[in-house]
């Protein structure tokens, strides 16, 4: 790299101050431990919240419920107070974190909030058989926090909690109905997430949240559609839906050059098509092998053509 | 390493690095364009996700291609051996001659899958007649040896880090496979051999990495992979051994009954020392891979502390460990930040160019936002650390 830097400086592409800084970086005279320290902080917070959870379970009888509840509530309030004081308030645009601890303190606050809710339900059974509403409440609070404090980690926590609420809600409906209901809920959930992300982007509101919405939403949608392809009766409808969503995902990948969405479209699409074809055909073993041979060759050709047209590496 | 890669990798590396400079705000987009034009690579690369798809469907197509004549002709063991013997060199030839040398593909998925299939087919071609002849254990051992040799060859010739990792896994499993094939009822001996093998390969790669500036990028990644795999293998061995998890549950053998008394304390000490040694080496050499290994293995050591030091207070230990790790990170951040120009010696807590994920776009990792960087605009001049976003893989468009 030092040779290339000399060459780039000599040809006038880089100025001397730039090459001086880059030489220091590549010569390791300047070395960033930014990511290592963040990893340490993240692991520390996860260990701490796990330890606190175990401490509560162990001592809740001897310490007293009110003391424990007060301690958790105080810690949670402290975290949110810190974020409110340090953060610059709500903004529809991306906001840089005021300091390195900000994001992690917010995460800690949200996790403590979850612990507090769990403890309240465990001890006092405030919502009894409607306990799953705690999940919905948590998800909504996390959503609020994610948007107010501009945090994508808390946003993904909120969306996954919302998904968990839907799953739990479905499981309470009864065993026979569970599969179909879960699939339908997943379809609604995935479509809602994608739609919410698209609407936010259209309104110019937290545009940088869109990838979180899309990655989660598209995966949930495609997985739900694939699981329905083999079902009796509604199989063709799920198959058609899969083709439409897969096509949209591939189109989005091509337009925004986010090729992860092409991966989703091709993998889920291939799985769905294969299930559909195998379900609706009476081939012998040679036919199936021929199917895999022809489709693999066709896909490799298509991917090469796609790369040539859109120069995916650049 | 083959000549096209050795010569072409430099251009690929400069092009990729220039993107990171641009994303960190160290150079302007116009300058990045200038670098890209001057160092336009001759090698062909594709995006990471398309690479995964190409590898997957190439492998599927070739397996179907070999299965079709096998089913139509209803071949038995000898027929399969012949088919594998035909397809193994064919796959290697197509990958090496047609795709790499003629089409100049570089980490495109298709050629990597073909080479891996060539090694797998060859190992099966050798194993099948041996197993058919009644020597089942010997047959699988021969296949194991060919996989190890093939993975090493791929790592040396093409600089594939994944092949290097596969080679290390095969090497680690070899003593146990050998003991099983030769009916050695000496688990301790296999462990000693494993330890020696890992120590030797780790030390060898560590010594080779002292001349890292002269090595091609592919070789550098392979050596780094070998070093980390050796360290991880030794660490897992001593850590898992100490609480007998793997040995009892996976191998159905608990070492407690047969061990000399100092084995457990030694493993416990090594579990603590390995992260510290990696940390020290990482700081002295300013090596990111070693630092990551040190942080991750250090956290693992803290979390598995209860297996060595039996306080019997897991909740308190975890809370204290969490407080310690969080506090340590805060103190180090503040300490580095309060130094002259935001650094202490060579070290700074500001993001410079990291991380480089070679083709993985930032959006795929958006869900881990606190660990992900933000992009900044171009900086004026002097030391103004930028928040580097995830680097992309880049090269020519032709395939």
Automatic annotation (TrEMBL), chain A:
Ranges where the DUF2157 domain occurs: 8-153
Organism: Desulfuromonas soudanensis
Signal peptide positions on this chain: none
Domain of life: Bacteria
Name this protein carries in UniProt: DUF2157 domain-containing protein
Keyword field: Membrane, Transmembrane, Transmembrane helix
Short name of one Pfam family: DUF2157
TM annotation in the entry: 39-57, 63-84, 104-120, 126-146, 153-174, 186-205, 212-229, 235-252, 259-277, 289-306
From TrEMBL, chain B:
Region (Disordered): 375-399
UniProt KW keywords: Membrane, Transmembrane, Transmembrane helix
Keyword Transmembrane: yes
Protein's name in the database: DUF2157 domain-containing protein
Signal sequence, renumbered to the chain: none
Domain of life: Bacteria
Keyword Transmembrane helix (UniProt): yes
Skewed-composition ranges (Gly residues): 384-399
Organism, scientific name: Desulfuromonas soudanensis
Transmembrane portions of the chain: 48-72, 78-94, 114-131, 137-155, 160-177, 189-207, 219-242, 262-283, 290-308, 320-337
């Amino acid at each position: 790299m030092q040779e290339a830097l000399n060459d780039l400086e000599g040809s006038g592409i880089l100025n001397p101050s730039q090459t001086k800084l880059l030489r220091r970086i590549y010569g390791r005279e300047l070395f960033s431990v930014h990511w290592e320290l963040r990893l340490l902080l993240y692991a520390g917070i996860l260990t701490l919240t796990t330890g606190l959870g175990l401490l509560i379970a162990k001592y809740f009888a001897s310490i007293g419920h009110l003391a424990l509840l007060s301690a958790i509530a105080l810690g949670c309030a402290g975290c949110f107070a810190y974020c409110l004081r340090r953060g610059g308030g709500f903004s529809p645009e991306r906001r840089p974190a005021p300091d390195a601890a900000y994001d992690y303190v917010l995460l800690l606050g949200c996790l403590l909030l979850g612990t507090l809710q769990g403890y309240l339900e465990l001890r006092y059974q405030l919502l009894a058989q409607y306990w799953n509403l705690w999940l919905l409440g948590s998800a909504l609070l996390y959503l609020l926090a994610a948007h107010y404090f501009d945090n994508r980690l808390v946003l993904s926590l909120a969306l996954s909690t919302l998904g968990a609420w839907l799953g739990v809600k479905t499981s309470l409906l009864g065993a026979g109905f569970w599969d179909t209901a879960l699939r339908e809920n997943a379809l609604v959930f995935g479509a809602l997430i994608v739609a919410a992300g698209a609407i936010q982007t259209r309104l110019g509101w937290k545009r940088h949240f869109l990838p979180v919405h899309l990655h989660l939403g598209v995966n949930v949608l495609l997985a739900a559609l694939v699981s329905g392809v083999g079902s009796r009766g509604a199989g063709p409808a799920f198959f058609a839906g899969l083709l439409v969503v897969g096509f949209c995902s591939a189109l989005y990948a091509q337009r925004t050059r986010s090729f992860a969405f092409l991966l989703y479209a091709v993998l889920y699409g291939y799985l769905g098509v294969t299930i559909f074809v195998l379900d609706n055909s009476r081939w012998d073993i040679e036919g199936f092998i021929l199917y895999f041979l022809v489709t693999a060759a066709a896909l490799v050709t298509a991917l090469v053509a796609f790369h040539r047209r859109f120069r995916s590496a650049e | 390493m083959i000549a096209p890669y050795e010569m072409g990798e430099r251009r690929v590396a400069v092009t990729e690095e220039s993107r990171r400079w641009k994303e960190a705000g160290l150079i302007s987009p116009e300058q990045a364009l200038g670098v890209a034009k001057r160092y336009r690579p001759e090698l062909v690369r594709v995006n990471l996700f398309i690479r995964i798809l190409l590898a997957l469907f190439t492998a599927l197509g070739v397996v179907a291609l070999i299965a079709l004549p096998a089913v139509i002709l209803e071949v038995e063991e000898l027929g399969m051996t012949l088919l594998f013997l035909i397809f193994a060199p064919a796959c290697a030839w197509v990958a090496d001659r047609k795709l790499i040398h003629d089409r100049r593909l570089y980490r495109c998925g298709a050629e990597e899958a073909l080479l891996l299939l060539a090694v797998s087919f060859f190992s099966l071609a050798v194993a099948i007649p041996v197993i058919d002849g009644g020597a089942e254990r010997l047959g699988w051992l021969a296949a194991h040896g060919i996989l190890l040799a093939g993975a090493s060859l791929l790592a040396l010739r093409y600089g594939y880090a994944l092949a290097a990792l596969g080679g290390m896994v095969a090497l680690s499993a070899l003593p146990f496979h050998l003991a099983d094939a030769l009916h050695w009822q000496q688990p301790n001996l296999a462990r000693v051999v494993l330890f020696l093998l890992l120590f030797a390969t780790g030390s060898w790669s560590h010594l080779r990495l002292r001349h890292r500036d002269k090595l091609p990028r592919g070789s550098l990644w392979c050596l780094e992979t070998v070093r980390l795999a050796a360290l991880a293998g030794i660490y897992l061995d001593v850590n898992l051994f100490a609480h007998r998890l793997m040995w009892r549950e996976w191998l159905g053998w608990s070492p407690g009954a047969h061990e000399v008394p100092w084995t457990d304390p030694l493993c416990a000490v090594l579990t603590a020392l390995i992260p510290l040694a990696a940390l020290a080496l990482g700081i002295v050499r300013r090596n990111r891979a070693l630092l990551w290994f040190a942080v991750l293995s250090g956290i693992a050591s803290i979390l598995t502390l209860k297996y060595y030091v039996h306080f019997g207070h897991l909740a308190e230990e975890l809370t204290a460990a969490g407080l310690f790790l969080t506090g340590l990170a805060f103190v180090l951040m503040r300490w580095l930040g309060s130094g002259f120009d935001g650094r202490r010696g060579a070290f700074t807590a500001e993001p410079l160019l990291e991380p480089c994920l070679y083709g993985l776009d930032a959006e795929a990792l958006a869900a881990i936002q606190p660990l992900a960087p933000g992009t900044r605009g171009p900086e004026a001049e002097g030391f103004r650390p930028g928040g580097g976003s995830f680097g992309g893989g880049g090269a020519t468009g032709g395939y």
